[in-house]
Structures are given as C-alpha cells and as structure tokens.
Design goal:
By secondary structure, this protein is α/β, with parallel strands linked by helices. Among the domains are: 179 residues, Rossmann fold; 174 residues, Vaccinia Virus protein VP39 (Rossmann fold). 26% of the residues lie in helices and 16% in strands. The chain is built from 18 helices and 19 strands. The chain is globular, with a radius of gyration of 25 Å. Its EC number is 2.1.1.-.
C-alpha cells in the first residue's frame, strides 16, 4: 500500500529541507513515485528482493543491560551490505536429526523435559520437578510430527473441536469423562464446555460469577485474567466472546497435555507452576485471578503461593476461588477454609461475595486492597511489606518471597488507581510509562508506527493470509504495539519481553494485553507446533552476544506449526546468518524490501534416508 505524503511529513520519514519555492515540485515527484504499484511478495523458495523501505519513524527507546539505547523498530543501517549484493539462497550443510526420545519426542520441551536434572533434585515437595531445568548446551534436535498430523482446525471452529491426530493423548477423556472436559468423536476431540466446577457448562458458570458480583463487568473493568490450573482452558476460551483475554496456565503433569489442548484450540495458554519461583509476570498485572479446583495449596510454605498471586493481582483486583473448602464442612475442608481465612485476613483481602449455585458448587470472591490503610492497622505485621524496589526486578528465576508486594505508584509517588476500562486502555497513556518528559509522545508515536507498518507492510505488502493464523507470538514486544495493531483481527498475541531488553511488560498489561518474560537463549514453556506466526523485530541485537542464532532457529522451528510463518525485521547482517539455517530446515524464505524476512515452515522432518544421503 502506498505511504501517503502527509504521513511522510508527520512521521519525518524524509528530511524535507528544500526551499519553499521547490516544495511543490518535490511533492509532485514524491506522489508520482509512490503511486506506482507496490511490489508483491510471493512466498516461494526463492528470495524476491525489492527496494528498501524508507526509515520508520522515531524508534521505541529501550535499554540494553549496559544502558545502551536499542530499538525494536530500528531502521536498516546504511553500513550493512545491500540485499542485492548478498546471495540469500545459501543453505547451511547441517545434518539434522529428530530428537531421540522415543514416543516422547513429538512433545519435547527441553527446559521441562530435562529428566537427568529432575532425577538429581533433592526435593519435589514444592513442585520443583515441574519447574524449568534447561539442558546445557541447548539441544539441536528436531521434534518429529505425530503420525497423521494435519493442518489444525481453524478458529472459531477449533474452540470446540480439534484433530485427534494432532494431539493424540486420550488419557483426559477417560480421567475426566464425568466432568465433560473433552470427548473423542471420530477423528476429533470435542470440547463440550464442561469442567470440574462447571456442572451446567462454562457459559453458565461465567454468568453465575457476574450475577454473584455485579462489579465484575466482563470486557470493561475486567480485561486481563489469570486462570490457575486451567484444565483445557474452556473458561478462558468462552470469555473471549466477552472481550476478555485470559492467560491460562497449568504445569506439565499427569493431566496429559491440557495446555497443548488449549493451544491447539486457539486459546491463550502457557505451561507454568506455582512452586519455588515467581511467575514470569510483572507486579500488579491482572484484573482478576481465577482458580477452580486448581489443586494449589495456598497456605503452603508459609502462604508464599497466595503471596505470589497477591503480587501479580492489581490493587482492587479480584480473586475467585471455587473449591470444596468454600462450600463443604467436612473436617479436611473446614481445616483448609480456616487456614485460608487466616491467610487472606493477613493480606487484607476482603470477601466481597460467597455463594453456592444450583448444582451445589460454590465460590468465594476476594478483593485486594487499593490502599495501605489496612496494612498499617494489622496487629501482627506478618507477612511484612516487601522492601521498596530501587530498580524493576524482572521475575525470571526469582525465588518466591515471604512479603506483601507494595502497591504501585506513579512518578509523583501517588497510588495508582484502577486502569482505564477496555477498550480505551489499549491506546490510553499507561501509568508505568518512564518518567522522561517525552515518554508519552514516544509511546503515541510507537503506536502509530506499528499501526502503519502492520497495515501497509505486514498485511498488505507481505500478503500473509490471516485466515490461517490464530496463535501469534511477538518475540520482542516492546510496548506491545504490534499486538495492538492486530487487535481487530481474529487472533491473539503472546507478547514476550526478553530479559535483556527494557522491562515494558507492565505497560503491555496496562494496555489490556498479555505477555511473559523470557530468555531466548533457552526454550519457551510451550509444546511443539503451538504457534501460527512468530514475529521478531530486531530480536538478535543483544541475543547473539549470549547464544548462537542456530539455537534460536531450532526453538522457532519447534514451536511453529507446519505451514506457519516467521516474520523477521532486522539488519542484513543478522538476516544473512538466520536465513541459511532456515533453508537447511527446508523452510521457504522470502526477503521483502531489504529488511523483512518471511519464512514459512513446511512439513519436512529428517528421516533415516536423509541421513544416509548425507553420509
């Protein structure tokens, strides 16, 4: 799509420093040049090289660990080799092999399936065996496809049914057959919308919550939700209809592949556990947290699991707990309830509703305080308030804390209030913006830049079919501008903030989006073949100093579905290093305008015949 002259002036894409007498002529020339038809992009096995784009507008300022400014929207450097001077059809001669793990190889997650490290653990009492234990060096084998793997069912049909052959794990069908989690029907798994606590179906349960507490307004003051121990994520899947996005999470445990079911359905989900380490979310992130029989001992380890929920829950946010101690009075449940009462009282959580529905299932709704008044009035100052943070601490391999996280304040030290309702919060000024005088202008300009880039290049110029795309990951998310620009599309975006980038994840949540922290030198907490599109804007600048591009490419290949796309905006130096690796994996690749690399993963996997040919 042509870029308008008005936007060129507004975004200063060219230094229009001509005298006024030549301005009209210059504009005429520009209009003429840009009125020509833009080159199309063919997703073939050969690169199509076209003229480079003009520099994008003012970049998003971020900081490296050395406090050196970097940018997620950095223009192509003039010192890099021109695309036309580089042979981009080169493929590395790599002897790829499938992971040799027997039937477990198809679902291999390196940092969660490191059985050698797990066997050496001294304790499993606090779920240490479900946490990350990454092998060193990172494995360079490929996850094979399940037998009979097919192109996934498209959204929205996928919410209710998926191919059995893509996730061939029937254990949940038998284990949860009385609770309507999932059923097998011919070549499909079908999801009736049931659950342990959803006796009348998840839609009825969602309506029951709203009727119980009218202050909960789905898609308005409640936009981002954390669902703990989510099962197959039907709760989050049905809330999508109400403009609510839910981060559903559960560990990789005996509930075989529940997160894999969720992602195959097209529902946001991630593998995680409340064990000994903090969740990979910022403080004060979620509007509401939900637990329906999630099997977490909230009072364990001195109450650290519930203190962790308190950390990621916004001031004034809600915690919904639907479990037998809420509505049964046998000896065991009564003991748990008393312990929960004592713990929530010490956290100054207030019970705002407690009820039982027509099926006999009950729930309690707590609300986190939005001021310090209750904390100051406690007779016993336990748990204590956490120390003031001098710097933002990214929750990555950080141990759980026995303290109450402090309430967020603005740059003037005033307590922050409830976020702007959805959808206004997507484009409103985030409370966590840096204190620099031009921070808001930079945020607004970044939002406009991504809106234009997605519209004019990603959707129009690259001609990527959105009908095939549901699960999207932005591997270097910045302020979440890429996800915001796609908000009207029938997809969702997992925004990833790398640990070596500026911490912008709080801003992403304040906009009503979801995301996590991650180190791309390690594997991501997801199953193979779970994303349709990976987006990486200048990801490799700091990354290549700590690990090799080939290891990142192997991880991209693991989590991307066959037929899925990788979209990279980067320097030619990094593209030249990445492209041969993708070609060796039998991906088709295309270069657009000198800085956008598009890769499409095929169905190829190594075979014994391939290895014989190479030897």
């Amino acid at each position: 799509m042509p870029i308008s002259v008005q936007n060129m002036f507004k975004e200063r894409k060219f230094p229009f420093l001509f005298a006024f007498s030549f301005l009209l002529i210059s504009v005429t020339i520009l209009l003429f040049s840009y009125s020509a038809s833009s080159p199309s992009l063919l997703l073939s096995t050969n690169f199509q090289v076209s003229d480079p784009l003009p520099p994008p507008p003012r970049p998003l300022p971020t900081r490296s660990p050395n406090n050196v400014p970097v940018s997620s929207t950095k223009p192509v450097s003039k010192t890099t080799a021109a695309a036309s001077d580089v042979d981009l059809n080169v493929s590395l001669d790599i002897k790829w092999e499938n992971c040799q793990l027997g039937p477990l190889a198809v679902d291999y997650i390196p940092c969660l399936d490191n059985w050698k490290a797990i066997k050496e653990l001294k304790s499993r009492r606090r779920m240490e065996h479900r946490e990350r234990h990454c092998p060193k060096p990172s494995p360079r084998c490929l996850a094979p496809l399940p037998i009979g793997y097919k192109v996934p069912v498209h959204w929205p049909k996928s919410r209710d049914m998926i191919w059995y052959s893509n996730v061939p794990h029937p254990k949940l069908v038998e284990y949860k057959k009385e609770q309507n989690w999932v059923r097998k029907s011919g070549d499909y798994f079908v999801f009736p919308g049931g659950g342990t606590q959803f006796k009348n179906g998840v839609q009825s349960y969602i309506d029951f919550i709203h009727k119980t507490l009218r202050a909960i307004k789905w898609g308005k003051n409640i936009r981002v939700i954390l669902d703990v121990g989510c099962g197959v994520a039907s709760f989050g899947g049905y809330l999508l209809d109400k403009d609510v996005i839910t981060m559903s999470f559960a560990p990789k445990d005996e509930h075989e592949s529940q997160i894999q079911f969720a992602l195959e359905r097209g529902i946001p989900a991630i593998l995680s556990v409340i064990g000994t380490q903090k969740l990979t979310f910022p403080d004060n992130a979620y509007d509401l947290i939900h637990c329906a029989r999630c099997r977490v001992h909230w009072d364990g380890d001195g109450g650290k699991p519930l203190l962790e929920l308190n950390r990621v829950l916004k001031p004034g946010g809600y915690f919904i707990w639907s479990a037998t101690p809420v509505y049964r009075d046998d000896e065991r449940d009564s003991k748990v309830w008393k312990s929960m009462v004592a713990l929530t009282t010490s956290l100054c959580w207030k019970i705002v509703a407690k009820t039982v529905d027509s099926t006999g299932v009950g729930l309690v709704i707590y609300q986190k305080p939005s001021s310090y008044s209750c904390y100051k009035q406690r007779k016993e100052k336990l748990p204590p308030l956490c120390e003031q943070k001098t710097n933002q601490n990214v929750s990555w391999y950080e141990p759980l804390s026995y303290c109450i996280s402090r309430l967020p304040v603005d740059r003037m030290g005033n307590l922050l209030r409830w976020s702007t309702p959805w959808p206004q919060r997507l484009s409103s000024k985030p409370p966590s913006l840096p204190s620099e005088p031009d921070a808001e202008d930079i945020f607004i300009e970044d939002t406009k830049h991504w809106a234009a880039l997605v519209s004019e290049v990603y959707l129009d110029g690259l001609a990527i079919s959105l009908g095939r795309i549901r699960n999207v990951m932005d591997m270097n998310a910045g302020y979440g501008g890429f996800a915001a620009a796609l908000i009207d599309q029938p997809l969702w975006v997992m925004n990833v903030v790398p640990i070596d980038a500026q911490d912008t994840l709080s801003i992403i949540f304040e906009r009503g989006l979801i995301g996590v922290y991650h180190d791309w030198c390690e594997s991501f907490n997801t199953y193979p073949r779970t994303y349709d599109l990976l987006h990486a804007s200048f990801l490799f600048k700091n990354l290549k100093e700590r690990c090799e591009i080939i290891d990142v490419a192997v991880e991209m290949d693991r989590i991307l579905r066959p037929g899925g796309y990788l979209l990279v905006q980067d320097t030619m130096e990094n593209i030249k290093k990445l492209n041969p690796v993708l070609r060796s994996l039998h991906w088709s690749t295309t270069l657009y305008q000198g800085q956008f690399l598009v890769g499409e993963k095929g169905f190829w996997r190594p075979s014994e015949n391939d290895n014989r040919k190479e030897t």
